[in-house]
Amino acid sequence: MKYLKWSVLITLLFAFSCQNQEEKQNPLLLASIHPYELILKQLAGNEFEVKCIIPPNASPHTWSPGPADLKNFSSASFILANGLGLEANLEKNFAERKDVYVAAASLLKDIIPLPERKLLAEEEVPEPVEHQHQHAQNPHLWTSPSLMIRLIGFLEKELSTRFPNSSFVFKHNAQQMQQELQNLIDKIKTERTQYKNPAIITYHNAFHYFLQEFDIEELGFVQESPGKEPTPKELALLGNIIKEHNVQAIFLEPQMDRKAGETLSKEFNLKLLTLDPLGSDGKAQTIAELIDNNWQKMKAGF
Questions:
Q1: Which residues contact 223 (CB under 8 A, 6 or more apart)?
Q2: Of 79, 148, 240, 273, which is least surrounded by CB within 10 A?
Q3: What is the CATH number of the domain that holds 254?
């Protein structure tokens, strides 16, 4: 009888312990892409669970979610996306959780520079009407360290409003992150002075804000829009740019098909280098490291 009593007591204690652990689960923060996952992890610290929706080896422009990819939406306490049409196939899901959804583009709407999107031979190759709305503003905000400094400041306030008990953690971590990014800006500016009129050709213009910030010319890009392979005429026009500017390298991206880049590399004897805007190799632990990793690779193509 004593054994039975102890057995019941242990079972009850175990059940209570499991229930208590469930109650103490950290709130879930979702990021649409890996760069924002890095930001949320560093900003929120250990008090929150952070997950990424779109795999970093996939293009957010074209990726579509399956049922398993959406399992965390209902339990998320906060969702950070980019906006500006980057995650077009998730917009319906974001709308269903608008109470916890925030877009980086909305937080930065008053300070995002309005770029002139430079297409390959845009005068000769008119852009299809169905793509024009997508390209009104470049969505790749996270490649600019200055924009990320501002975004982190906005996120710190946003998260502090939603989770006031963690406001001190957010503020402390935000200040540290902003200083890391400012140090990176100073470093890149110093290293940038080693190069006279640097210019590159990218696979698609994912680095527009970075190049704009550090006065690096983008001569052109291989894909006019994500997933759209260049026509023979567009490749020929790009070849003219390569010869005119004595381009030494072509930059691939892990999320994009390599075929057109390899064709250009073979025809014009170009180095094949890789820029990874989403950090698919997992080497970067912070947004500052991700930006710096791409800068180090970019320098090899000047």
A1: 203, 204, 229, 230, 256, 260
A2: 240
A3: 3.40.50.1980
